[in-house]
Amino acid sequence: MSKLQVSLYRYNPETDSAPYMEEFQVDTQGRDLMVLDVLHLVKEQDNGLAYRRSCREGVCGSDGMNMNGKNGLACITPLSEVVKKGKLTLRPLPGLPVIRDLVVDMGLFYKQYERIQPYLQNDQPAPAIERLQSPEERDKLDGLYECILCACCSTACPSFWWNPDKFVGPAGLLQAYRFLADSRDEATRERLSELEDPFSVFRCRGIMNCVAVCPKGLNPTRAIGKIREMLLANAT
Amino acid sequence: MSNLRSLTFDAIIIGGGGAGLRAALELAKSGKKTAVLSKVFPTRSHTVSAQGGITCAIASADPDDDWRWHMYDTVKGGDYIADQDAAEYMCSEGPKAVFELEHMGLPFSRFDNGRIYQRPFGGQSKNFGEGGQAARTCAAADRTGHALLHTLYQNNLKNNTTFLNEWYAVDLVKNANGDVVGCIAMDIETGEVVHVKSKATVLATGGSGRIYASTTNALINTGDGIGMALRAGFPMQDMEMWQFHPTGIYGAGTLVTEGCRGEGGYLVNKDGERFMERYAPNAKDLAGRDVVARSMVMEILEGRGCGEKGDHVYLKLDHLGEEVLGKRLPGIVELSKTFAHVDPAKEPIPVVPTCHYMMGGVPTNVHGQAIMQDAEGNDRIVGGLFACGEAACVSVHGANRLGGNSLLDLVVFGRAAGMFIEGALNEGIEYLDASESDVESAMQRMNRWNASESGETVPELKRELQDIMQNAFGVFRQEDNMQKGVQQLAELRERIDNAYLPDKSNTFNTARVEALELDNLMEVAEATAIAALERKESRGAHSRYDYPDRDDVNWLKHSMYFPAEKRLGQRDVNFAPKAVDMFEPKVRTY
Amino acid sequence: MVTNVTNFGRSGLSDWLVQRVSAIILALYTLFIVGYLLLNPGLDYAAWSGLFAQTWMRIFSLLAFVSLSAHAWVGLWTVTTDYLKPTGIRVATQTVIILAIFVFLVWGIQVLWGA
């Protein structure tokens, strides 16, 4: 018997006046389960537990949460990587309003993503085939397009906590740079002019929490640095 | 219930994956009042998990490539029950649809000349099978589905599509004439139930791989569209045809793309033998998926499986080198480290055939219009109901889908449905409004769960269903086993009809969603089981010990499952493409 | 684009640049003063005021004062926008800060050039 003690953040606005932590014992049968598997086991004990999940392989970005103090995806985080002293504490992503249990309202996060106009802009008439792009030009998108919008980075960022309505946040900025870096995109000037205010990009203080938690190993801080370089080159 | 709030749209698209978003994009551009209703935020749909690519004759890797060759491969791959008019439409329209995606910004990998990178995939040939292996699968590294889904979502944002994200469609609403005039849907966040009225209802709800215990499918793939259509009394086509992907990671079930073998990887048994050379001397590891999956199971059954239990084989990639793996298959390296604890640059990945794709679904024409049969067995269009993507059976995949053809299916037929609906709306569609009792009957199921006071709970019933399907309707099937499976499912259905939902709260009640999903799994499982039992031959992915051969005399047909009588009928396969000669059924070898 | 009227340069980029350039100037000035003090252990008033009597030292010092003012304004403005959410309190605090900076700057100039 190998019981794991799981401490879970609980809140149901219909019945709870305030959030609280609830303890569960989960029998892992000695297996190195993923945190998501543990949540399934808890949900069999308590049907009412709410959390998001979909692909269970780290590509859809549904199950971002705070596991023993660090943001990550429950489905690709094995217990061996996160459990300390036989205990697992799960909380919702910090800094966003909680809807229920581990489910947060991602509205602000998505709004910042939408704000950077996350789509290719090119008004030239499209050719009959694809637009050509050299492998070197395409390489510039690596490390950028892979973002899964799980919000682990932005909700680990104090600047996003303080100004989620004004600071685009690491996830949105990574995507902003994804389009700035795309040889096929023609809206560079407009994109940059939308970002030069004191909040959108410049609220980043380079503490690199985003890099530390990104489950896909991406580096938003570097992308933000590149945006700053482009702004500087554009304005001096 | 007249106290339901109602929302009215010209078209409602249920499902925010590749097919739904592609259809939505077409309609958003048209200015019609459209909404996408998705139970997850769209980029969390299962399209995101597609890895290897989108197969299409864009003539990049080979300037002489021809969509007719692709069509030939598709028809042959489907073991000749793919509709040839549909395969023709998909393969000939495909390049247009793929170039559109590129213009929208999809970050395809590239060749040195700047064109889209294409890799070889299973079942691909040049010159109608005579010219050797083709490389026809357009790829964005091994994250093509992710790149495609995000690109489509982004372009829907650009075109101001209305999204009802984290809404769950419960059941279709039919009017007195049997037309579909909308659906009942629940806002998951608040629990509010709404009557969505619509002139066109598009099922883009994807597959249902979760009827099996071991599947590459996301947890959300519960066949919601299929379940809704079956409950509304509409027939399903070719539901016995389930693809088992040769390379699911042993134990975890997560997918390892066929692109691994396209890039030069191959399967070995415990003796280190590249066994596919024996089963498919020409195509080897790039034979059709059904062929490779069966070969793997044969190796395992004959005692040449790997591992302590001898119940899997190995996918060898280390000879490709770290550079190719890092550049072309970075996601696979990640997945196999996480789920198999193996670095593919050093060791082989343990793999086993795993449920992957539902070839069957809502029968439709190339415009996405749902089809049913009248008493004489003639096709009849269902008013107001459309389907596209995995939920639909157009049928381009027949009895076995080729790798890379699902993403093409999504965008080509999502787009086609969107265009057709726009045209139909312009011409004007009028259906009789649903009456109160029509709405009431669509609410029945939801009311049943909400009123339940005791009984078995969802997780255990779901597990049982998955085990039944896994044991009786897997890669190889046989009569007695399937008989038993059908029997067990009939008993399970009764228990599910009396199951209990303990949590009745409204705010983000995932237990309620899972209960509603269980009903859909049940519908899909039963349709699959009965169709599999009745199709007495082996064709494509449907492989029976007791009927090991293809029977073109009796079964060169689609199967049609009718839910009211739980009866299996047949429907003619289309052999009349417009611009090419039809492909005669031949013995299928690779 | 987020609109702002109270920050230093009206643009995040110029604030950012001002912050970096002023930081370099302040670092150089600090290094110079510390180095001077270390190299002149028996420093007396005459030598000290002699140093500040030279024009280049006055320009260098003024540059450092101006840099300090700008640096402080950009930095403190950022802090107030992070932590002070009620508009009234934030604007009041910002006003006090800008006044203080202004007073210190004028006073500094007076000390430097007035003697």
Automatic annotation (TrEMBL), chain A:
Its EC number is 1.3.5.1. PROSITE patterns: 4FE4S_FER_1 (PS00198), 4FE4S_FER_2 (PS51379). The keyword Cell membrane does not apply. Keywords: 2Fe-2S, 3Fe-4S, 4Fe-4S, Electron transport, Iron, Iron-sulfur, Metal-binding, Oxidoreductase, Transport, Tricarboxylic acid cycle. GO terms for molecular function: 2 iron, 2 sulfur cluster binding; 3 iron, 4 sulfur cluster binding; 4 iron, 4 sulfur cluster binding; electron transfer activity; metal ion binding; succinate dehydrogenase (quinone) activity. It holds the Pfam family Fer4_17. Residues 137-167 form the 4Fe-4S ferredoxin-type domain. Its cofactor is [4Fe-4S] cluster; [3Fe-4S] cluster; [2Fe-2S] cluster. The keyword 4Fe-4S applies. It catalyses: a quinone + succinate = fumarate + a quinol. Belongs to the succinate dehydrogenase/fumarate reductase iron-sulfur protein family. Two distinct, membrane-bound, FAD-containing enzymes are responsible for the catalysis of fumarate and succinate interconversion; the fumarate reductase is used in anaerobic growth, and the succinate dehydrogenase is used in aerobic growth. PANTHER family: SUCCINATE DEHYDROGENASE [UBIQUINONE] IRON-SULFUR SUBUNIT, MITOCHONDRIAL, SUCCINATE DEHYDROGENASE IRON-SULFUR PROTEIN. This is Succinate dehydrogenase iron-sulfur subunit. It comes from Halomonas stenophila.
From TrEMBL, chain B:
Its cofactor is FAD. The active site is at 289 (proton acceptor). It catalyses: a quinone + succinate = fumarate + a quinol. Substrate binds at residues 245, 257, 356, 401. One of its GO terms (biological process) is tricarboxylic acid cycle. Residues 10-407 form the FAD-dependent oxidoreductase 2 FAD-binding domain. Its EC number is 1.3.5.1. It is found in: Cell inner membrane. Pathway: Carbohydrate metabolism; tricarboxylic acid cycle; fumarate from succinate (bacterial route): step 1/1. It is a peripheral membrane protein. The keyword S-adenosyl-L-methionine does not apply. The keyword Cell membrane applies. One of its GO terms (molecular function) is electron transfer activity. Flavinylated by SdhE, about 5% flavinylation occurs in the absence of SdhE. Keywords: Cell inner membrane, Cell membrane, Electron transport, FAD, Flavoprotein, Membrane, Oxidoreductase, Transport, Tricarboxylic acid cycle. FAD binds at residues 15-20, 38-53, 224, 390, 406-407. Residues 463-590 form the Fumarate reductase/succinate dehydrogenase flavoprotein-like C-terminal domain. The modification Tele-8alpha-FAD histidine is found at residue 46. One of its GO terms (cellular component) is plasma membrane. Belongs to the FAD-dependent oxidoreductase 2 family. FRD/SDH subfamily. PANTHER family: SUCCINATE DEHYDROGENASE 2 FLAVOPROTEIN SUBUNIT, SUCCINATE DEHYDROGENASE [UBIQUINONE] FLAVOPROTEIN SUBUNIT, MITOCHONDRIAL. Two distinct, membrane-bound, FAD-containing enzymes are responsible for the catalysis of fumarate and succinate interconversion; the fumarate reductase is used in anaerobic growth, and the succinate dehydrogenase is used in aerobic growth. This is Succinate dehydrogenase flavoprotein subunit. It comes from Halomonas stenophila.
From TrEMBL, chain C:
It is a multi-pass membrane protein. The heme is bound between the two transmembrane subunits. It is found in: Cell inner membrane. Its cofactor is heme. GO terms for molecular function: electron transfer activity; heme binding; metal ion binding. SUPFAM superfamilies: Fumarate reductase respiratory complex transmembrane subunits. Heme binds at residue 71. GO terms for cellular component: plasma membrane. The chain crosses the membrane at residues 21-39, 59-79, 91-113. Keywords: Cell inner membrane, Cell membrane, Electron transport, Heme, Iron, Membrane, Metal-binding, Transmembrane, Transmembrane helix, Transport, Tricarboxylic acid cycle. Its main location: membrane. A ubiquinone binds at residue 83. Membrane-anchoring subunit of succinate dehydrogenase (SDH). This is Succinate dehydrogenase hydrophobic membrane anchor subunit. It comes from Halomonas stenophila.
